[in-house]
Structures are given as structure tokens and as C-alpha cells.
Write a structure and sequence with these properties.
The protein is built from 7 helices and 5 strands, in the order H-E-H-E-H-H-E-H-E-H-E-H. The protein has 153 residues and is of the alpha/beta class. The chain has a single domain, classed as P-loop containing nucleotide triphosphate hydrolases (Rossmann fold, 3-Layer(aba) Sandwich), CATH 3.40.50.300. The chain has a 5-stranded parallel beta sheet with strand order 2-3-4-1-5, with helices on both faces. The radius of gyration is 15 Å and the shape is globular.
């Protein structure tokens, strides 16, 4: 499978604990890119949650629920290696940015990648609650260069 241009930049982010947010319009490939980064990381110490599934939101609806969910997946408070959490469609839940802020502030060994809509409401929400804690990437439809990459196959 061919990777999007943004893939390398997202993978480089794995070493720091800043929250990575991928914003974009519907159907531009946010979930596909997020899953590609997930698949490229170690099979241990990672969790992918599709927040379109209500049960997944319940697992992370509060800071304590999220930490307990991660512990069930093998996370340990004092572990040296990074634990990677992937949240797809995070924009569906307004309070989730506060939970992500709490994780960032209290766990330097948890890295969050999140994807969501690029609506103005979401941008304002994350600008305010995650100030200084995030890197935002915008995913656009396939550009001409990417089109040529994909066409080669």
C-alpha cells in the first residue's frame, strides 16, 4: 500500500509525547493514515479506538476510565517505553480534549494520536484546551504528486 506524504511526519512524532491531531474533511483518508501509523509501531503498547463505537467512548469518557482501559491493555505507570493511544473520530465528544490534556500532563509515557473533523468548533476547542500540548496536521485530498505515486502501481 502506498503511504500519504503526511505519514513520515506522523511517524517521526512517535518519540515525543505531544498530542498529534490529524484534521481533515470527510473521506480524505484520516482513518487510513492513522491505522497506517498504528500498524507501523510495535505490536505491544498500543491501542486503537474507533470513537464511532459508543462502547469505545465509554472506555475513555473520563481520565480514570482511560487509564484503567490502558492498564487492561498492558500499560504500566512506570514503564520506560511509550504507550501509543490512537483515537479515531475524537471530535464527536466535546470533553475528550480535557481527558487528553490530563493524560498529557500526568503521563509522559503515553502518546496520543487523534483524528477528527476540521470544523471550526473542533479547532477552537483544541486550541483552547490543548494549548502547547499538541501538534496539528491537516490532511487534504490527494494532491497531484500523490496521485502520480498511486497511479504508478
Amino acid at each position: 500500500m502506498k503511504k500519504r506524504k503526511i505519514f513520515g511526519k506522523l511517524l517521526e512524532e512517535r518519540e515525543n509525547n505531544k498530542i498529534v491531531i490529524i484534521l481533515g474533511s470527510r473521506q480524505v483518508g484520516k482513518t487510513t493514515v492513522l491505522k497506517a501509523v498504528y500498524d507501523s509501531l510495535s505490536e505491544n503498547n498500543r491501542l486503537f479506538l474507533d470513537l464511532d463505537v459508543l462502547e469505545n467512548f465509554e472506555k475513555i469518557s473520563s481520565y480514570s476510565n482511560l487509564i484503567n482501559t490502558l492498564k487492561l491493555e498492558g500499560f504500566e505507570q512506570n514503564q520506560k517505553q511509550m504507550f501509543y493511544l490512537f483515537l479515531d473520530e475524537f471530535q464527536r465528544y466535546e470533553d475528550l480534549s480535557m481527558v487528553m490534556k490530563n493524560v498529557y500532563d500526568n503521563h509522559k509515557n503515553i502518546k496520543i494520536y487523534a483524528s477528527g473533523s476540521s470544523s471550526l468548533k473542533i479547532r477552537e476547542q483544541i486550541q483552547e484546551s490543548l494549548a502547547g500540548r499538541k501538534h496539528i496536521y491537516h490532511l487534504y485530498p490527494v494532491d497531484f504528486e500523490e496521485f502520480l505515486w498511486f497511479k504508478e502501481d
